[in-house]
Each structure stands twice: as structure tokens, then as C-alpha cells.
Design a protein that fits this description.
The complex is a heterodimer of chains A (250) and B (309). Chain A is of the alpha/beta class and 250 residues long. Chain A contains 6 helices and 15 strands. Chains A and B meet through strand 3, helix 3, helix 4, strand 9 and strand 10 of A and helix 3, helix 4, strand 5, strand 7 and strand 8 of B. Strand 15 of chain A pairs parallel with strand 16 of chain B.
């Protein structure tokens, strides 16, 4: 079976992002960029499926600026076989990303597409579901366990009330949640090897996708700051404050 | 303008989360309809009809919609989408699963997790784990939106008498099926709607010791939350995770016990009215957002607290 794993280049999850001084957008200048953590979980899952002999080929794909090659090399170092960069300087939205991925699916004919459930920059949580709509593939979002066979995929999902299990026909879309696996670190030999793995480059235009944004970002601002509180001496002082000052308990 | 709200329900009763979307729809303005897609879900429709200010409740009652499978419900919504300028759902795992699929079928860019309505086409939403609030304007004819529940006060659940209309069509894609679910039965209040939340972190040290959190919560009539670290470590189930990618809560009182306060956790609770943090590390970031911090060993402080309340 063949797996397609889209990965996104995002600001590293440890970095605190602030608005630009004119409030027009997030200020990403000189910040550390990484592979989106949920995408990393998707790559790891694909690699484990390959190690189990269920999957024979892993294709990583990224849509974004030229430097997203770095995140594709990371995916290759973790075990992807080859990579495709869909290069664009447009601040591309989930709908256009899904359209690019649909075009890749038409060419590559994967049995399963494994994506992160959301990217930690835009926090949209849309791309997998949109790709499901465009391809007509069934979807299992927020996966915490995946069982794949030639007959289909069985997926345990993290939902608001607990866990839900779905069965999907193939090809299928699965988006990853945090508990699906714990990604490995790339070893130095694998990082070296990844440099020689094939990385093709295309563009949304070459794939026939109009990436013109449908929304415009009017501004970004910091949220209202919480006033710093106080440190209380002991439990009885805390209870007193909650009862008599905050009045949140009686 | 007219808005369609996707009802959140379990086929037996309407979930209160629906009322937050009603409030967001009222902020947008225009007629409001509610779609109840389910199986044997007539009771839900009747409840929805009682919400104040609803024009129509449209019910699609068919076995294909029993488990809210996106492959079946999305085409149903698309079928009636032409009647509306806005399609809304509260950002639960159900709506987050279905509405982007609807948006792509309609060829529109969905807007996730709005925290304020500026106008019919302009909305605020948190980005980068709530580090910033973005104002976005949509140029699409139909706005497909998920609503951050904590950002909109629930609309009144009674006082209305909307007409109930049936939708006959059944969309059954046949490509996905429901196998089962593991839902923890609990008498505690629902995490996202509770007035008080007691949350535990990695410092609880084990699943057994995490029971101290349940004990305090039950004593206070509170819901139980957990940090990602506590869930990853297996101390608490996934549906209790509060944070950027878990549940967003904004109770009157949030008690963070043994939680250091990573930005991803703060993203899920910093809109709480009063925040209490109990942590033995006086440098813990949670203390910088807490109204009341107590630097103490939680294993000493929790029994004292329970006795004092």
C-alpha cells in the first residue's frame, strides 16, 4: 500500500509568537521553524506501518515556501521514501491546500492519506476533512489508534465524550491526534541518507489549483492580558480569598 | 441574512453547546434555523424548537445520520446550504469533523473557532495557541463557521416555538461505518459547561493519585480536567484534556493542580473568570496567569483544601 503524508512548516511549538508592530500579521522573522507536531505524528505512523510490512511506499508532500524543503527532508530522514514540494509564496489557505493535495492524490493514487489534525499556527483543523470532500474518500479525524489492512482502516478517534471507533473503506483520510504515537528522532545516518532521497518540486499553478485566498487577514493583536494575581500563604488564606474576595465558592 | 445551525445532540437530547452557536448567530443577525440530523431524534427536534428566536427546526431523521458520520451528514447540509448565508456549529469534535467537509463541497474557505462576530463577513479567532487574536474577513458567499463555545454566552433554551419540518432525503455514502464507542459515564458536570473545573497535571504522579482530583471535584460539584502531560502519562482519559488541541473551558473557577502551565494548556483555560494554581514550583508559568497562587506540595494542600471547603 502507498501512503501520502502531507507535512506543514510552522513556527516551532516552543516559540511564543507576537504580532508585527503594525498588527498586520504574526511576526515570524528569524523564528525557529519546524515540522508541525501533528504532521510529525503522521509521518511516524506511516513509518511504523511500513516497518510492519503493511505499507510499501511513503510519499511526503508539503505546500508552502521553498524552505519547506527542510521539513520534507525531516520527513525523509524519519523514513519517507520520496517527497514533493508544492512551492508557493501565497499565504495558502486550507481549501487551496486541500485542492493541491487532491491533485497529488489523482497522480499518486495513495491507499491512505495521513495528516495532522491541525497545524499549530492557524489552528484551523480543516485540511484533512476538506481533502475528504474533494476526493470523496471517507475520513477519520483525531485518530488515537489506526489498524490498516487491505480491507480497510479501523480507527479509534478522540472525541469529546471519550473514544469512538470507525471503520473506513480505502482509500481513506486519517488525521492524527496526540496519542496516536510518539515520534522518533531522526538518526544522523538517516539524516545523511535523506539528502539523497528524491524531492520533486511543482507549484499550485502546475497542478491547476487557484490558490487565491478567500479570506483576508485584517489584523492580529494580542489577547487581553490577565492581571497578575497574588500568591497566598496557605490553604486557609486561599479558601478565604475564594469565599470572600472572588466569591466563587460559598 | 439567514443562518443554519448544526445541532449538537446524541439522538436523545440536545447538547447545551448548540446554544453557544445560537448566540453567535444572533450576533450575526437574520433568521436562524437549526438542523437536527440523526436517527430517532424527534425529541431533539422538539427541544431545539423551544430555543428562543429560532425560525425553523429542520429534521433529517434517518439511520444514515445516527452517528453523525461526516460522509453522510456533509452532503445533507450541502443539499440545503443554498437557503443560507451562514452555516454554524459549535466547535465540538462533531462539528470540527463535519463542517470543513461541508465547506470544501461548497468550495468555500471555512472559518474555524470564531471568538467574536464583528459583522456578517468579519470575525475574530484565536491563532497560534491563543497567543494572538486574528480578525478575518470572508469573501465567500456562504460562510461556514465553527464557534468557540466559551466566547458566546448560551442563548435561552426555552421560550420559543419554532416550526419543525422534516427533510426526507437520505445520504448514505457507504464508505464509513460506526463500530463502537467508549464513553465514560459520569455524574460530574460536563467539562466545557461546568462552573467549576478542577484540573490535574503530571505532578499527580500516577493514575491512582489522580483520584485526588476526582475527590476534590466531587466535593465541589466540579468537572475534572487534565493537562496534556497527565493524559499522555495515562493518569486521565483523553476527553479531559484542556488546551489548544483539547477542550476550551472558561468556568467561573478553574483550579490548576500540579500543572506547570505550558502555553498550549493556557490556551484552553486562560479565559476562566478566576484561576487558582497550586504548584510547588514558584517559577511555574501557571502562577503568572493565576489570580490566586499557592506554592505548596499538592499532596499536602489537597486534603487540607478538601477539609476546608
Amino acid at each position: 500500500m502507498k501512503v501520502l503524508v502531507p507535512v506543514k512548516r510552522v513556527v516551532d511549538y516552543n516559540v511564543k509568537v507576537r504580532p508585527k508592530s503594525d498588527g498586520s500579521d504574526a511576526d515570524l522573522a528569524n523564528l525557529k521553524m519546524s515540522i508541525n507536531p501533528f504532521c510529525e505524528i503522521a509521518v511516524e505512523e506511516a513509518v511504523r506501518l511500513k516497518e510492519q510490512g503493511i505499507v510499501s511506499e511513503i510519499v511526503a508532500v508539503s505546500i508552502g515556501v521553498q524552505q519547506a524543503q527542510e521539513q520534507l527532508r525531516t520527513a525523509l530522514a524519519l523514513g519517507a521514501d520520496r517527497a514533493i514540494l508544492i512551492a508557493t509564496d501565497v499565504a495558502i489557505e486550507p481549501l487551496a491546500i486541500a485542492k493541491c493535495l487532491k491533485a497529488v492524490c489523482d497522480n499518486e493514487k495513495p491507499d491512505i492519506v495521513l495528516l495532522g489534525k491541525q497545524a499549530i499556527d492557524g489552528d484551523n483543523n480543516q485540511t484533512g476533512q476538506m481533502l475528504g470532500a474533494l476526493t470523496g474518500f471517507p475520513q477519520a479525524t483525531f485518530a488515537s489508534e489506526l489498524t490498516l489492512s487491505a480491507d480497510g482502516a479501523t480507527v479509534k478517534r478522540e472525541v469529546d465524550g471519550g473514544l469512538q471507533t470507525l471503520s473506513l473503506t480505502l482509500p481513506a483520510i486519517v488525521t492524527t491526534d496526540l496519542r496516536l504515537n510518539e515520534p522518533r528522532y531522526a538518526s544522523l545516518p538517516n539524516i545523511m541518507k535523506a539528502k539523497r532521497k528524491p524531492l520533486d518540486s511543482t507549484t499550485p499553478e502546475e497542478l491547476g489549483v487557484d490558490a487565491t485566498p478567500r479570506t483576508s487577514l485584517l489584523n492580529v493583536r494580542l489577547p487581553a492580558e490577565r492581571q497578575a494575581g497574588i500568591v497566598v500563604e496557605d490553604v486557609s488564606a486561599l479558601v478565604d480569598k475564594l469565599k470572600n474576595e472572588a466569591k466563587v465558592i460559598s | 441574512m439567514s443562518t443554519l445551525i448544526i445541532a449538537e445532540h446524541d439522538n436523545a437530547s440536545l447538547k447545551a453547546a448548540t446554544l453557544n452557536s445560537v448566540a453567535a448567530a444572533q450576533a450575526i443577525g437574520g433568521d436562524i434555523d437549526i438542523l437536527v440530523a440523526g436517527s430517532d431524534c424527534q425529541a431533539v427536534a422538539e427541544q431545539a424548537a423551544q430555543i428562543a428566536g429560532i425560525a425553523r427546526v429542520r429534521v433529517a431523521d434517518n439511520a444514515a445520520y445516527a452517528n453523525a458520520l461526516a460522509e453522510n451528514v456533509a452532503p445533507l447540509i450541502v443539499e440545503i446550504a443554498g437557503d443560507y448565508s451562514h452555516i454554524l456549529g459549535t466547535a465540538t469534535t462533531t462539528a470540527k469533523n463535519i463542517l470543513p467537509r461541508v465547506a470544501a463541497l461548497l468550495d468555500v474557505q471555512a472559518i474555524s473557532d470564531i471568538s467574536a462576530v464583528i459583522s456578517g463577513d468579519t470575525f475574530e479567532r484565536p491563532v497560534y495557541a491563543g497567543s494572538m487574536i486574528a480578525t478575518v474577513q470572508s469573501s465567500d458567499a456562504i460562510k461556514v463557521i465553527t464557534v468557540r463555545g466559551t466566547a458566546f454566552d448560551a442563548a435561552a433554551s426555552d421560550g420559543g416555538s419554532a416550526a419543525i419540518e422534516a427533510i426526507g432525503s437520505a445520504h448514505d455514502a457507504g464508505s464509513s461505518s460506526f463500530v463502537g464507542e467508549e464513553v465514560a459515564a459520569s455524574d460530574r458536570p460536563e467539562l466545557t459547561a461546568a462552573k467549576t473545573v478542577v484540573s490535574g497535571g503530571r505532578a499527580l504522579g500516577s493514575e491512582e493519585q489522580f483520584s485526588m482530583i476526582y475527590q476534590l471535584a466531587d466535593h465541589m460539584g466540579a468537572a475534572v480536567g487534565a493537562s496534556r502531560a497527565a493524559v499522555d502519562a495515562g493518569y486521565a482519559p483523553n476527553d479531559m484534556q484542556v488546551g489548544q488541541t483539547g477542550k476550551i473551558v472558561a468556568p467561573d473557577l478553574y483550579m490548576a493542580i500540579g500543572i506547570s502551565g505550558a502555553i498550549q494548556h493556557l490556551a484552553g483555560m486562560k479565559d476562566s473568570k478566576v484561576i487558582v494554581a497550586i504548584n510547588k514550583d514558584e517559577e511555574a508559568p501557571i502562577l503568572s496567569v493565576a489570580d490566586y497562587g499557592l506554592v505548596a506540595d499538592l499532596f499536602v494542600a489537597l486534603p487540607e483544601l478538601e477539609a476546608a471547603l
